[in-house]
Design brief:
14 helices, Aspartate Aminotransferase, domain 2, 3-stranded antiparallel β-sheet, about 350 residues, alpha/beta, Aspartate Aminotransferase, domain 1, about 15% strand
Length: about 350
């Protein structure tokens, strides 16, 4: 088996998850009658501190439901230029919600507060209504960086003061919580809605959750149906999510330590590249080697899979299915990279 560093979505369900899936109590989730799904939604809402939650097939659907619920066609959404919701969802936002993204720089993973404030305050009758600010924590494209809590709090306060909702794409919020030592419910307190993935880092085979106020989630359920996401006996897969959320999140620190090892190997191989290994905070390493395609071929020949996430930008992602031996192999190959 190759060492797969393409994404943390490639993890396989554990034996405990498989047992839970086989024995799951189920019902028709379309009617709200699946007890395992209902329990998963309750557990998630408690973890992130929201009134209600909704189980959806994917993180992209969770983000799209948030856009459709918190905006109206013709509205503008302020977001970072490299956020997943902007460039990694195949143009879904404008198609599904009829919105326009107004982007600001997010090279460090954060949105500049002054820039967002200027955007919100520049509205005029001839401008589209800005109804939502969207953020991502951890921020994948910058290498899994996390938002400082004070910055999250300040942005949430700014959005509220201007009558805007705030959506938190927390696909890897669990990693941010472990790296910062700040619980998910505290990190998500700034947001109107928060989406988290169960298949990234936690190892569940499928599914994400969207949390928020009860009245917002009532409309979100309608939007899930419109997008074809209403499921039937979904407890079969939701059961794995319950196992994932019951497990100690501290295990993710192991993934972070493995990513730090990869970052050190990259810095040693290309000391003049300008790569700063201390900027790797969680389980994602993004860097710009001199010949990315050649590097990917070299890694693949040696038994390590990786990918680019933008022109010239290679991404390595650690997860539960990559052990120390796999990281050793990847580091050796990086050290011998052409």
């Amino acid at each position: 088996m190759p060492v797969d560093l393409r994404s943390d979505t490639v993890t396989r369900p554990t034996a405990e998850m498989r047992r839970a899936m086989a024995g799951a109590e189920v019902g028709d989730d379309h009617y709200g009658e699946d007890p395992t799904v209902n329990r998963l939604q309750e557990v998630f809402a408690d973890l992130v501190g929201t009134e209600d939650a909704l189980y959806v097939p994917s993180g992209t659907m969770g983000n799209q439901i948030a856009l459709r619920t918190l905006t109206r066609p013709g509205d503008t959404v302020v977001a970072g230029a490299r956020q997943h919701i902007v460039i990694y969802e195949d143009g879904a936002g404008p198609i599904n919600a009829g919105i326009t993204f107004l982007t600001t720089t997010d090279e460090t993973g954060q949105l500049d507060l002054a820039s967002v404030e200027g955007t919100l305050d520049s509205a005029s009758p001839s401008h589209a209504n800005v109804s939502l600010v969207a953020i991502e924590d951890t921020h994948m494209a910058s290498g899994g960086r996390i938002w400082p809590l004070d910055a999250l709090t300040a942005l949430g306060g700014l959005a509220a003061s201007r009558g805007c909702a705030l959506h938190l794409d927390g696909a890897r919020l669990w990693n941010a919580a472990v790296a910062s030592g700040i619980p998910p419910r505290v990190r998500a307190a700034c947001a109107t809605t928060v989406m988290c993935c169960l298949s990234k880092g936690l190892g569940a085979p499928v599914g994400s959750l969207l949390g928020g106020p009860a009245e917002v989630l009532e409309e979100a359920r309608r939007q899930r149906r419109r997008l074809g996401g209403a499921m039937r006996q979904a407890g079969v897969v939701a059961a794995a999510g319950l196992v994932a959320l019951a497990a100690p999140l501290d295990r993710l620190a192991e993934d972070h330590a493995k990513a730090a090892r990869l970052a050190g190997a990259i810095a040693d191989r290309w000391p003049d590249m300008g790569f700063e290994p201390e900027m790797v905070q969680t389980n994602i390493v993004v860097f710009e080697p001199p010949e990315p395609d050649r590097l990917l071929h070299h890694l693949a020949e040696g038994g390590v899979l990786a990918q680019t996430v933008a022109p010239g930008r290679v991404r390595l992602v650690t997860h539960a299915d990559v052990d120390d031996a796999g990281i050793d192999l990847a580091c050796r190959l990086i050290g011998k990279a052409p």
